Amino acid sequence: MNVSALERSLIDALYGGRLREALDDWLDKDGLTDRDRIRAQEISVGLARFDSALFKATEELRSDLTEVGPGVEVLLDRERLDGRLKVLVSRDNFGRTLDQLRLHGFVPMRTLGETADRAIRKAGLDINMIAPKGPLTSVSVTRRAQAPRIVSRMNPGMSDFQVSLPSWAWWAYWGVKPIRRVGRALGMLQRSAAAGPFLGTPEGMVSSLLELVGLSQDDLLIDIGCGDGRVLIEAVESFGCRGRGVEVDATLAALAKRKVSDAGLSRRVSIEHGDFAKARLDQADVVFAFLPVGHLGRIIEPVLNRMAPGARLVVHEQDEAHLNPEPDSSSLVVVDMGVTVAHTWTA
Ligand SMILES: C[S@@+](CC[C@H](N)C(=O)[O-])C[C@H]1O[C@@H](n2cnc3c(N)ncnc32)[C@H](O)[C@@H]1O
Questions:
Q1: Residue spans of alpha helices (H) in 16-84
Q2: CA of 275 relative to ligand 1 center, distance in Å
């Protein structure tokens, strides 16, 4: 694999939550080559800019959320560098906190109907929301003073909320979870094809990722699990290529289509609603994926096998993934709005 000792050690430091310290250690080293010094300085400058954008966005949100009322606490894990916030909130202020987050453009990670929204607000159930843009990626809202674990484990979650119920029957979600469990155990219900929820690639990162695989204007880029289509839109606007997205979530696929059309790119970008495991990839020059690390480990080989010889695959992730086959190259990508690790292969 084509990775320098500096890059490998910084990637491991990122996974271990100590990138800043590792960078300082490298920059203090005697006998560092010019190339490594420039690379370490470049990452250090990028990280400082990201840190400052993250701090500013967190403080703005904290100031608005604390106005909701007492008992709202905003926590940022500065070591993880993935822009995820945790908000702890009392049950009384749960609904108002969600309203405030919505005003800031945060949306639930999975599509929620009106009844599910009502159940979440009434009972103060944990909910994960995605940030609209900027260095914050997501926020998980959790009730302060949780019920004992044995009780809270009975609470419905995002998958249970995919069942639609009439508005008056919001309490019935507590029955959906056991029914789904029994249905799955008896083989009557299939697991969804979706590999994790939607989380967008941060703004401004797409170009850096696609430059690594030399995307050009004659290429077709396929985003497997395209979410709201942001990668395709940024890629087509920056590189002049064509794009195709495959998305398993019907609401997200419709949103991606709308965003592509609003950007005036419908002739260059198409969106398919479906499972990427069944999509044709042999026409792609570049395939892009941002999926949960647990799934990445399983999909690389089958995806490469379905691509044309010479086509390139680029994936990125912020946690260590067990990738098979080993990537041709791995590198840290640090932009103002985020930090990630990019891996590339040629089919
Ligand atoms: C982490 S998001 C990334 C979205 C987008 N590629 C980006 O980088 O902004 C992963 C997306 O993959 C979709 N997804 C997961 N499993 C899928 C599957 N089997 N087929 C198609 N889409 C899938 C999810 O619904 C989600 O929108």
A1: 19-28, 34-66
A2: 9
